Amino acid sequence: MARVLSLGEAIAELVHDGDTVALEGFTHLIPVAAGHEIIRQGRRNLTLVRMTPDIVYDQLIGAGCASKLIFSWGGNPGVGSLHRFRDAVQHSWPVPLEIEEHSHAGMANRYVAGASGLPFAVLRGYTGTDLPAQTDTIKPITCPFTGEQLTAVPALNPDVTIVHAQRADRAGNVQLWGIAGVQKEAVLAAKRSLVTVEEVVDELEPRPGALVLPSWAVTAVAEVPRGAAPSYAAGYYERDNAAYQTWDEIGRDREEFAKWLNDLTGVKA
Amino acid sequence: MSEYTADEMMSIAAARALGEGMSCFVGIGLPSTAANLARRTHAPNLTLIYESGCLGAKPSRLPLSIGDGELADTADAVVSVPEVFNYWLQPGRIDVGFLGAAQLDKFGNINTTVIGSDYHDPKVRLPGAGGAPEIAASCKEVFVVLRQSKRTFVDKVDFVTSFGHGTGRGDRERLGLRGAGPTLVVTDLGLMRPDPDTAELTLTELHPGIELEQVVEATGWTLKAAADLKTTPAPTERELTLLRELKKAGE
User: Are strands A174-176 and A149-154 parallel, antiparallel or unpaired?
Assistant: First the structure.
């Protein structure tokens, strides 16, 4: 059964140095507040996983929390590049960042395999591209029935997956709607999971089509209003597009970034 | 005819390539602008599919990203990301994949990964693959839209993120790829199509006012032009008006 914890307690208990951590979300419902709490608590050597690392991953990388990134598209959606990510890959600043790179289809299937309790997934993908040469996590496989050459990718099973959702009840059942990305698969693939929610309510009003993560499938729930901002939470608030544009200016410059980091952590440089 | 920019000509030419009633897997940026313009002009029943899981999106403004709430709010259905790739894209249900690129080579191979020959020490680290490798592999055909320069149109891409025609005609078939690959490239200068025999991208149309030499100069390989090189019809007033409204509404 999921326990309802504060965000600080949940991160302290669930996220350890050296862990493989997925903070998933697909433009919608990005668990930004949880990412910031990881930075505040000073985690190191994390392997960060996400299909679409965006600005909160740029912040985690810039803050030196990550030693590896597993991803399929790293950018500031609708704005441009992630400059802290680029600085880490191209100049090892503030620490070197190893990368394990996939396509969206490959990543989605790796989570599906993880959620399914299987060691790998099969897809018709990557053929002819230079991606398989850069990682040992993309391998050819022959279909035992037709002989067709396909691609195998290993399951992703994060130590902890963190997602953001609209609501949970006091028992820790979670309700999420709108663009659901790979949140369900990432939670079910993980050893531990934390769902931050806009609000904890006495009773979950049924919403047709909403994704429900039952309490027994989640480790902890933390109530964090506006926990996805500057991304958005359908039914609660809109995406703050200006914040993504502003991040481009901050992320571009190491000194500007250091100021931002000091403001977040309360530590003066 | 009012004045128009090269970018406007590019977006309009790209929109015209999308037929009424088609389904189109849409990348963000130029492809999304073109696809949304097509819905407002000649193809109101174009089905837009975004990799965030939005099937049949009908946005009232240009989405800022593939996960824009406007796409979910106006879609026929919102499905998970594994579903959109496994059930809708992979079996070849989608007519056109509409992609952008950072680099494109003469056989339509796309690079969105790294600039520079060393993957581990790149000159420029780009965002990466996203959905493009499987879009390029699985859609019935692929249209690519990007601004043309020697920097973007190269003899050979630094990294094959998404496979076009490899090293020439027949490579796709040999690898067992099911879609036809890139059949059209739309730029701010003209249109290119793969040569029927060699699959090398060949200039088939020039945009109005553009000289052949200009396009050759902006291409990193010795560009061939089709024997019957045509001129793209200039944007109509209606196309320009609708494009400008769309761009304005997206701001």
Answer: unpaired
